[in-house]
Amino acid sequence: MSNPPLLQAALAAHRFGLGEPTLEPLAADPQGWLLAQIVPAEAARGAGLLSTRDGLRLIAAEREKRDAARNPPPGMMAEQLLAGHYRDATLADARSHLVSAAFGARPLVERLQLFWANHFTVSLTKGSARGLVGAFERDAIRPNLNGSFETLLKAATTHPAMLRYLDNSQSAGPHSLVVARERRRAARIGEPARVTGINENLAREVLELHTLGAASGRAAADGAGYTQADVTAFAAVLTGWRVGQDAADAASPFDAAWHEPGPKLVLGKRYPEGPDALGAVLHDLAVHPATARFVATKLARHFVADTPPPALVERLAAAFLQSSGDLPTVYRALVRSPEAWAAEQRKLKTPAEFVVSSVRLLGLSERLFARGDGLGVGTLGQRLLAAPSPAGWSDRADDWLGPDAVWKRVEWSTRIADRVGRLVDARALAVRSLGPLLDTATHQEIDRAADGPQALALLLMAPEFQRR
Amino acid sequence: MTSSIDPRRRFVVGTLLGAGALAPWSTLSLATTVNASGNRFALVILRGGMDGLSAVPAPGDPSFEAARGALGRYAAPPLALTDTFAFHPQLVETHAAYRRGELAVVHAVGLPYRERSHFDAQQVLESGGTRPYDLATGWLGRALVDGRAKGLALNTAVPLVLRGPAAVDTWAPSVLPEPSADLVARLERLYANDAALATALQRAKALHLDGAIMPSDADGDAAGMTAMTGSAPPVRPNSFAALARRAGAFLAQPDGPQAAVLELGGWDTHANQANPNGAFVAALRQLDAGLAALRDGLVAADVWQRTVIVVATEFGREVAVNGTLGTDHGTGGAAFVLGGAVRGGRVIADWPGLAKADRFEGRDLRTTTDLRALLKGVLADHLQIARKRLDGEVFPDSAAVRPLALLT
Asked: Given CB atoms, is A346 within the 8 Å cutoff of chain B?
């Protein structure tokens, strides 16, 4: 790393963190500043936040309301009668998501929180995840950021939000007690059985999106990856992992009555019947070389470049494998990799990163988040906690660089600049925050702005601030 | 229909209108005199894998009832298309288009990709390749290479299908104030060395400030919408129908985009698919209203006769109902082609049958028509793209996939 120290500090602040208003405090030892942050995450910030158990109670309360609203007036859907049931909890979750990132003392850890919450996406786009998405981030992801990947994987996979989001709560072994019981009930009343067997959604996404990666599925033809039979068998292992109708069940999400009897063969290995098999499969997946490579590639892509340097991916994958997926070891390897410190800013910030780094740059108050939707991140194309699919938000610039997306950022910057542009000196702020990253031409353009708000809008929209 | 695959089976073209036997293959020759530059194309991508057998059931297939169980029974009677096929009762407007002869259904259609990953399948659907991640640009983006042709995505981001050498605009509704022209001019200077940001800004500016192709603004006018779409319910500003209407307004501009891409999610229905208040019916309702809104705008602007719309999804779903009254990922499914330029009122299918032995891997509706045949037919006959380019550049290595004849 032959960059001058101030450039290193600017890269540490913006590429690995969420931006700093001044580089002074980290200029002495930028890498040390990052390494010192690799400790367990602080608790999430915010008020009115539900625990996982509270979230399950909220869902149970909704079910009662829904029963009461069984016969809605004509033209009205049950959804409309129930509108607003989750509003307060969801707004509190969205605020906490942003406020924790913007005001946390360890920006690298907050970046990792955003990264892993996106890797293990649960999303409000599916009704069944409502009430639990924030709790998932706080209870499954945040406490496990700094341990082993295996622990994180197990916490994410067995959290009620994930079990519901990817339909596992409804997946039953075809030969389970529940299916037999349901078949008898259905025959008695002459209706189709509501539960008859496997739903393989969670099994497929754990393999494809959380561990081995889709490329591994594609390699199945060469005998290297996983096959449809592996997906089905893993889904059978997952049967029984559900959250009961009663919130009190939260502590024991495994229900043997739903579990498919008999051993299962996943990736050529035999796993016994019962709840312990899931932990064993997840252990084997967590330390699999394909998982090491998949996670290494995603981390490198997230922090460094859409097409990450192969040497960096190798280094991270090796750190992952040698440490059996010890995440702090992998993070340290990332911070110490010379490839991660190229001066060129190749990544474009996501809307959430852009908004959070603007808040940090301007020292805006937490009160700004007190109401509404999280300062308009949704308008910028990233509705908080509502990623469009289980694959999460894209981590590639092309997907955020549509003309409309960039235009919305200009509009957003204009609005913020109108509010606070007369209170800050954008010219000085640009130098203090971006240091050597600030291009001479950009500096000049900000200097020559018509007024304070315009100077600030230019700073927020400058390539040096949009990229990292 | 037989219970096993008959190698001699003929291409079945069912029609409601009773038109005689129709050659299914495109017969476009270079002698065409139509000027394609005024023609319009829209692609509607249904993300999540629409269950083709729920949207377009085949009650006439002897195995249908047994194979589909609870998902084969509807709250209202399905809307008849042919002896074999019908529409889901929710697709009222779409059915009306079929009856007017403006819409054709292509069934048992699918991608060359035969796996079950959404993300890989969407990559193949949009890139036009045969394997995921072989291509980094999209087939429509490559088709529009001509300097005059322009694409528009009704979305904040550019979808892969439109990526390529041609100019692409994106548009989505906004609640924020417009920035000043002065600020934008200064940003253009700031982006002198950042080509990606510069391009995006330049395109956005053309849509927002230059006013070149701004359609009239009446998004919030729910009453007006209702008047236009007859009995359709009021349209929310951010709904798919509102976006579709916007797309129609853009496409209707004389110098507007030649191709527009819309996306509609919510099709990954692993559970409770038949629930009348559930996700699948809600998605169908949105699709039905959106297609009607798109048509209304184009009819009013007299562009409908020069329009073709393709509705496609990344894959279908398994024939059998899964353990939670939904369906898991499968391969073959259904696609729609509609527009004033379409010879509709037909269900085009080389129907493989639904018996277990006839299914792909014993699970899915077997893909017997390559979706690229449909897309190539539209691009060839409607946008006048030369067969050679279609076979090589637009859909690489697809010479063996013959374009379907879909136009009047």
From this structure: no
